[in-house]
Every structure is written in structure tokens, then in C-alpha cells.
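Replying to the earlier thread about multi-chain prediction with a worked example.

Input:
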Amino acid sequence: MQPYPNTETLRPPTETTSRPARLKLRPPRNRIEKRAIALWMLHAALTAIVVLGGCGIAYATAESSRPYLGPVIAVLAAFYVVYIPLMPTWRYLVHRWEVTDEAVYALSGWFEREWRIIPISRIQSINTVKGPLQQLLRVATIRVTTASREGSISIRGLDAEVAETAAHRLTEITELTPGDAT
Amino acid sequence: MSGSPTAVTAPEPAGTAGTTDPAGTGVETAAAESPAEAPWRRLDRRVIWLDLVMFLLSLTPSFVALVVLDVDFSDGAFGIWPLAVATFLGVTGAVRDLLRWMKTRYRITDERVELRVGWLHRRYRYVPRDRVRSVDATARLRHRLAGLRIVHIGAGEAQPALRLNAVSVAAVAGFRRELLVATGTRPTAADTADTADDTDAPGAATPETPIAELRWSWLLYNLVNIWAFLAAGFLLWSLFWLLQLVNVDLRDVVGGLVDWRELGNGWSAVIITAGSFLLGVIGLGIGFVTENWNFRLVRATTENGTALLTRRGLTQTREIYRDDRRLRGVHTSEPLFWRWLGLAETEVVSTGLAGWTAGQESASVILPRTRIGYARRVAADVLADGVRPLEAPTRAHARAALYRRLLWAVGLPGGLAAALAWLAPTSTVPDRLWLYALAATPVTLVLAVIAYRSLGHTLVEPYVVTRYGLARRYTTALQRRAVIGWKFRQSLLQRIFGLNTLGIATAAGARHYEVPDLGAAQAVAFAHETTPDLLAAFVVRTEPTPVAAAEDPQPPAAAPGSEGWKQECDRPS
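Result:
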């Protein structure tokens, strides 16, 4: 065997494009459920209430903390005023998912985006997760795990029924696909 | 794990099996027919003798200090307490170890390895046999003198699942034979460890191919280290308490060596720093020699294939088996500070090997710090397929990765300087501090260029090779089949620069390897080239190719929207 098969031909002539055509990932096909916006908004609002409430109580009771707690509360409040309406909508616009016969593919994030692809043959477990707020809004999360934590996918904010169907289908495909998961 | 009573109520074997081996060599029991009736075994009886010796040894300091030397403890900083505490700890340790021996039982059934342990807090744990990934043996000096070994039975988790302290050397060989052979092909032959009639048996007749042996030049490479100061601190701390046993205060001893006041603060600091560094280097040297004494890396043939085997250690020996069927690649790490000498540490990337554990080097480390050329040669011998992926030329990353690093190199000191300049009027920080922050910019710029030059990736069949890192340059060669998923990440800044960080998920090694700052198209192309079948359905080309691509050997899985796509990445040369 020659020491470096293909390396010369694989070596790009220029650093940015190694191929004549630039390859790109197409976004996954499905958007998530719109009610996820409400879910994230609720989550963010609840966190804001806890955090600002905690600071507020400290501000009200401990007089000595006021000089530095005041600006902190102001900054946090300003952050949440922007964060609560902006983040959920932005996330909704970014998040997408797809399950094919060969792979699970999901895009998530908001200002930092993340595409994850895992082959069906390497899946170790599939669950749907529904917290109390999620039950209220009839949304669910599908969690697909592999032997690597970084190679696991959580598809959040799906309609509960869609999630059930998708998880069910995914389980079926996974059972049909041979693989040792490592 | 928990003392689940249902599991523990398995019938005690009493006289059923009848072949209970009291010495704990325990190989006969491999032939035990029924899983429920495999006898519970004890640890080796020689542990008792060790405990007795330890008990007597722990009384020695008191004896020496009080009877032989007749030390006066009336005026020390801590009085007689250090001696009392040390003796108490030693004696209780020996007694507790004896109790532990009495209350420890283990057995190997057809399905699982079971361990029952504990006096007040009883515990029962087991590992299913098909989960057993490693059987490692370690030994402290006292174990070696008594012909004992501590066995760690690992299931590929962070901590070894079961630990048997201690069993005889023959029993360890028995465990290896029993547990590391795939279920079903398990030999029914009993003891072969010291009867050499069975030629396939590991032990005396095991054929081994040497890969690496300790070279004394390695000592130099492993000595000078920032950890020297930590080692010195630890040594001094130990020495301090050791001397306290005979009521000598180390602080007085050091204070009396030189007239420190005469020297002044500057020279005192220099002497203390240099002294402790020297002490630390000596400590590291001794540590390296004792740990790597007789270091040998070999490929051993076992009944279920081959394995990489490390043997090393002077007072505490360690033997590590790494099944070749689980080998997925190699990994080197080159510290920036030693780049000029070309030093590197080498690990294997393997599934089912425990990751980092406190106080012990990871089992994946196959070589101490050596010259990179040697490390690569060893890596090639370990992979043993003639590909030498670590030496393959890598492809450069998109130039934007350099620009992003340069931006950080300017932005970080710049931002710091701005913050300090802003704080300067409040007199909370020294006036001209911001100038120093700004002066760091040339250094950070150089570091940015080094970081960019460290980046690289390539595909050398059958390996994916990645390289990155500033303070340490990590080069990983991972078999393509070990890739179990992809993660493309793009921060806001990366989106502006058109960059992507590619994450490779795998079940082996660190479970996750990164290729930072590829060009966005480059990342997709690289991932696609590595696992064409997986990405085929999700990849589109953004502009048509003017040049006709080569023949596609295997058309990708039909996916709408990707008909025009050609699998040119795997084009043969």
C-alpha cells in the first residue's frame, strides 16, 4: 500500500474551495411547532421572574447591597426586555428537523447555530420528554442518543402528537437497521 | 451497587460446587457448571499477612521515636500529635484492611462478575460478563513481594467497575482468560497458568511483538515541567510532616541553613524558586523512573485476537491490556513550549477504555513524552496497517480562520486595555496598566498565527485526521467507521467569517473530536467525503461545476434536491 493514498489529489489547490462546486448543507425539512415560541417565552419569563425577584428581595431587604445591586438589576432587566420577545421567535425561525431512513438531522440554536446529523445505525435510545410546561402547551422533545454525548440530538418544541409519531417511526426504522451503535 | 437484598440472596454455594479454591487462584471455578452454583471466592489469604506486616510497620515510627531515639516532644510546634495521628492511621488502616478481607466475596458466573463487600455498609455490585472491557492488574511494592496483584475489572466507564485487592498472580491470568474471551468461545479447560501444556494459553507461551521500550533519554523530556513546582510543594509538605514525627521542624532547619536576612528579598526569592524547582525536577525524575521502570509496549496475542499491552513500574507495577478489536485510532499532543524540540505524548483512541481518572494516568496513554518522530513510528506500529495517518500532509483551513484569530488577538488585549484605561481614573487599578495590556498585542498576534498554522484536516483512508490547538497541538487519526455523527457549529462571528466548527462524534477515545474553523463549504465537503452515504441526502451544491466530474462509483441514496450532485470526493487518484 502506498503511504498516503489520495493525499496529493485530495490536497486542494487553494485553501477555501477544495472542490469546483461548493457544498452546502440544506436545512432540515420540517419546522417545529409554533407553540414552542410560547414555551420558550414562558421559560424565559419564569427565569426572569426568579432571577429578578431574587435580586429584588435582596435589594429591598439588605440596604448595604443597594449600591452595586442597583446597576445589576437594571442591566438584567434590560437584557430580559430584549431576550424574552427576541430569543423564542429567533429560535423558531432557526430550529428545523428531519428524520430519514438513514439519519436524524436537526438544526438548532439562535445566535449560535448547530447542525447535527446522526446515522440511524448508531442510535442507542429514543425517548420523548414532556415537562409540565410542555404538557400544558402540548409540545414535546425527542431525544435521540448515541454512544457519544456530543453525537446525540434533542429536537425540542415539537407538537406532542408529531413527536409521538416521529419517535415511533424512528424506533421502527432503528429496529430494522443493523448496527452496533459504536 | 446498592445493597439490593434480592440480588444478594442468591444461594450460598456451601458444599454444592465443592471445588472452592481457598487460595483464590480460583481458576477451577471456570468450569463450574451452573451459574447459580458458582462458588463465592475470597481474596487471597496472603492479604492477611500483608495486613499483619503493615500493622507492625505502622508501629515502627513510634518505637523508633520513643524508644530508640528517645525524642523529647515537650517543645515542638505540634508536640506528639503528628506521631500519634500517623500511628493511629496506620494501625486502623491495617485493621480495616483485615476486616475488608474477611467481608469480601466475589464470584464469576456465566452471566456476571459479582462482588460483595462491606462490614457495616454492605454492598453488592456486579458487571455483566459481556460488558467487561478490561482486566488490569496493578501492584504496590508489598503486593509484589507477596506475589499479589490488584485487579481492576472495567466495563468501559470512567471508573473501573470492580476492584479486587488482592488476588494471586495466577488468579489474574485466570481472570483474563475467563473474562476477556468472547462469550461462547470461553474455554472450559481449567488451570493453564503454570502448566504449559496448552500452547494457546496466555502466560509463558504468549507470543509478543515488541513495539517500544523505555529509553533513558525520555527522562530528560519528562523532567522540565511546570508541575515541578507542584511536585516540590508536595515533597516539602510530606517532608515537613515526616520530620514532625521525630519532632524536627523543617521551617527551623531551612531557616538555619542560610542567613536569609543578609541575602535580601530578591536573592531569597531567587534561591527559593530555583531550589524548589530543582527539588521538583528531582521529584518528577524519581516519579518518572519508578513509574516507567521496565516500560514495555508490546502487541500480545490472546485467545480472542491481539491486544496492546503495557508493562511498567518499579515499586508499583501496572499492566494494561487494550483489545485491538476496539482500537479506532491514535492521538498525539504536542505542548507549544516543547515544539522546538518536537516532543509529543501519544494515546490510542479506543472504545471501552476508561477516560481520565483521578490520580492515575489514563489507560489510553501508550507512550510517555517522547520525540514526535519516535511517537509517530510507534503510532504506525500500533495501527499496523502501513497508512501512517499522523504523518500525512494536512489540508489548510480557510484563510478566514486566520483572520478570526487575528481579530481576537487584537480584540482581547485591546478590550482589556480599554477597560483598564476606563477604570484608571477611579484609581482602582494602577495608572499605566492599560499600556501593558496593549503591549501584549504583538505576542497575541504571533500566537494567532501559530494557532492558525496548527489547524489542519485530511482524509487518509481509512482515517479522518484532525489537527488543532495552541497551547497543545492535538493530532487525531480516527478510523472512518468510528464516526457516529456530525455536529456543525457556527457562532455569529463565524457566520460573518464564513466558518464552521466541525465536531466528530465517536464512541471511542474522548467521544468527541473537533476541527475548529473550517470554511463553511470545506466543513461540509470534509464531512461528506468521510461519510458519503450519511450526508448524501442533506448536501446540495451551491453552484454548478464547469468541469465534468469523474465517474461516480456508487450513486448516493436518491434524495430530492440532490440529483445533480456527484460524489467526487472519493474520486480515486
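Confidence is low (pLDDT under 50) at residues 1-19 of chain A.

Feel free to reuse this layout for your own posts.
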